[in-house]
Amino acid sequence: MSYDEPLRLPVAAIPADCRDWTAGRAANWSAALPSRWTFLRVRRSIAGAVTTLALCAGAWAAMLGGLWPFVAAGFAVYVLWVLARPELVWAGAPALLLGLAVQASSLPWAVTAVGAFVVVASWAAVAVRLRARGGQLEQALEAAGDGTAQVPDGRAPVRRGRFLLPLGLVVLVLGVLTGVTAHLWGTVDDQRGSWVMAFYLTGLGLTALVSAWLGRHRAVALRRAPAPVLRVLVRDDAQGTTEVYAADDLAALRPLFTVELTSYDGESDEDDEDEGGTDGPDAGAGAEELERLLDAVDDDVPGPVREAVLFGAPFDGAEVVVLSADEDPDQPPLTEWSAGPVRPLSPSAGVRRIAREKAREEQNRQLERQARESVVDRAPAPVRRWRAGWLDWVAAALLVQWGVWLTWAGFTEAELPSWKLGLAAALGLYGAARVPVKLAWRITADRSGLWVTGLRGPRHVPWDDIRSVRRRSFELKLRWRGDDWSVAAPRWAWFERRRGLVHPYDALAAELSAMREDPALRPTGESTTPERGRPLWPLAVVLALVWAAVLVVWG
């Protein structure tokens, strides 16, 4: 796709005195960003993994080392604040240091020293990051000059926080319930671990509530008065995140920041509120719109570069509104509100991001070429079949090993309480339902469509109903109209690139995508019942009965 000609925004939609945010002015804004060691941009997966590790370490220290559950859970929540919600560190760091100081006499000096050092060092890093926001704001305001305008759709309901608010309340209630029932656990160590989890869930719930309030407060503040405006270029990446570029970066070489955006359809929302639901003649149109959005996300290709106006001065954590040209030239400009904070990219990080994106696009194109060539060169086949391989068997073995280890680690008492037996039974039922799919999944393609195996038997998916076949991370996902199917297996991208290997899921997705797009490449015959696979529920029943027998003998 060429990015030399961005999709143009109508001149009438551009506010008066709106300046271009050129690469030169944007460079001054980027120069005000703090260093990487301030945790400016941490991946969500990494933040989640580090927080989970801190929780596990804190729970271990509480059960074996005598650390207060409040301090153990607070440390894990504090790690999450450092990486994802730095505004709360100002309250969390002093509280955590106070807890360590009060309990210092009952802890080894090394534990207290290391904990205090981690808190103080991270507090300093966050302070540098938050202080840098002032420089970013100053540079953005200088670039905007006197250009201000009222945000579009200013009377629309503020949606910011609608998801986090109920989520925070639910998690907070779970934390309270966990604390209330802590005394029901068998041993003292289990009770301490329960209190750690209770405080941790309470901290997560409060974090979600505060995040909802902060986002809503900033979104409301953006509507109160005319906001600074800047002309920029935007593009949606393969995952649907919006990248913002300088107005003269026509080739989209260096994104300045990314932000999650959501659009507002006032008429649809008002209709839903008036009618109390989605039943009616417009329900089908809503479903089609949802399918279109899912297709765009699953397309795995960045969208076109579009002209846009940025409302609000951007800085790390800011709220913005983007008015951009719609990808459909027949549609009016698209107004989108930020559904998450602005996340700046340093110049080097932006270049690396584009390089990774181009490498991924090239790999996808190469896979598509190989798949198409393999299908074209192959003699026409009446039926094509794919089934679980050794990587899927490894995935099943890992799932079983994880379940056995978790059960052995948590349920080693001579006489298990009834609630623990119930939890072990639930884990076994989950494994009994997932392991057969991993071991014996099968996809059969014939001229009418695909047959996908499941617990209740093969399901038929006509070719015209298939929306996408993609491999994302460890998962192969097949999506069709109204439903989807997925299976996961191990993957090591670095090793595959070094050795020039192609993951089986990549090959399968590329071949099915080629068949979906070109009817001439599809199989020519009709599959028989044995070729389509058998129901997997008998194997699931056998595994569930085996697990039940183990629990009976064990209990």
Topology (elements, then pairings):
Blueprint: E1 19-20, H1 23-31, H2 44-64, H3 69-84, H4 89-102, H5 109-144, E2 148-149, H6 164-180, H7 188-224, E3 227-236, E4 242-245, E5 257-259, E6 261-263, H8 266-275, H9 282-298, E7 306-311, E8 321-324, E9 334-338, E10 343-344, H10 347-377, E11 384-387, H11 390-410, H12 418-440, E12 442-446, E13 449-452, E14 459-462, E15 466-472, E16 475-480, E17 483-488, H13 493-499, H14 504-517, H15 537-554
Parallel strand pairs: 1-3
Antiparallel strand pairs: 2-3, 3-4, 3-7, 4-5, 5-10, 6-9, 7-8, 8-9, 11-12, 12-13, 13-14, 15-16, 16-17
Helix pairs in contact: 1-5, 2-3, 2-7, 3-4, 3-7, 4-5, 6-7, 10-14, 11-12, 12-15
How would you explain this protein's 3D organization?
The chain is of the alpha+beta class and 555 residues long. It contains 15 helices and 17 strands. A hairpin with a 5-residue loop joins β3 (227-236) and β4. It is flat. It starts with 18 loop residues before the first strand and ends with a helix. Residues 266-287 and 289-293 have low confidence and may be disordered.
Q: Note the total helix count.
A: 15
Largest sheet: 10 strands, mixed
- Fraction in helix: 40-55%
Unreliable segments (pLDDT under 50, ≥5 consecutive)?
Answer: 266-287, 289-293
Query: Span from first to last CA?
Result: 62 Å
Using the CA coordinates, give the radius of gyration.
Answer: 27 Å
Structural class comes to alpha+beta
- What percent strand? 5-15%
Q: What spatial form do the alpha-carbon principal axes imply?
A: flat
Provide the residue-averaged pLDDT: 84
Instruction: Please tally the β strands and state the result.
Output: 17
